[in-house]
Amino acid sequence: MSETGATGMPESFVERLTAARLLAVIRGSDPAAAVATAQALFDEGVRFVEVALTTPGACRAIEQLRERLPQGASIGAGTVLTAADVADVEAAGAQFVVTPAVTPSIEAAAARGLPVAAGALTATEAWTAIERGAAAVKLFPASLGGPRYLRALRDPFPQIPFLAVGGVGLDDVEAYLKVGAIGVGVGGPLIGDAASGGDLAALRHRARAYLAIAGRLRP
Questions:
Q1: pTM of the prediction?
Q2: Residue 6 has pLDDT above 60, yes or no
Q3: Which residue among 3, 11, 50, 178 is the active-site one?
Q4: How many CB atoms are closer than 10 A to CB 77?
Q5: CATH number belonging to domain 9-216
Q6: For the residues 177-194, what does the mean pLDDT come to?
């Protein structure tokens, strides 16, 4: 997945995510609410949204969102574990995939040209994910070690694009970005109960708060 940047050259998934700084992670219990949540996020200016496959009807939700995707926005699939999952989400129109661990879906997605943010916690997992074709490493759960742990990981791996995901609250965003994360992936602290039929107005308010920090700390 690439789009044309200001220089006229195609921008990669990692370049675009680095510019956006924020990936919204939707994991809910209601497919219609998941779609409404993603639409509200896109309306507010969030450019990257993933729908986790643990959400009922996730592929159908991705398909609906792809049909009405705003210019410059991307819809992806999360919790993609197997080659069969990759085939399903690609057919639904997912533009990138996210995994919670080093899984067979990494090679399967890379072979299809789908960018992968692969879940990893340790140095060995991070390196393995990149060797298997991941475009970026999703440090997960980031809250286990916090920004100091990410900084330690980046010392031997400055070339790996790390996305901090898992327990990233609004007050944590700046610290992760300052130690070198290309961005943060945020589920519960941003989505709240919206993807299960909850308050969309509150979701929009939280989205604006996250986007304000992301905008201030763009590279």
A1: 0.93
A2: no
A3: 50
A4: 30
A5: 3.20.20.70
A6: 97
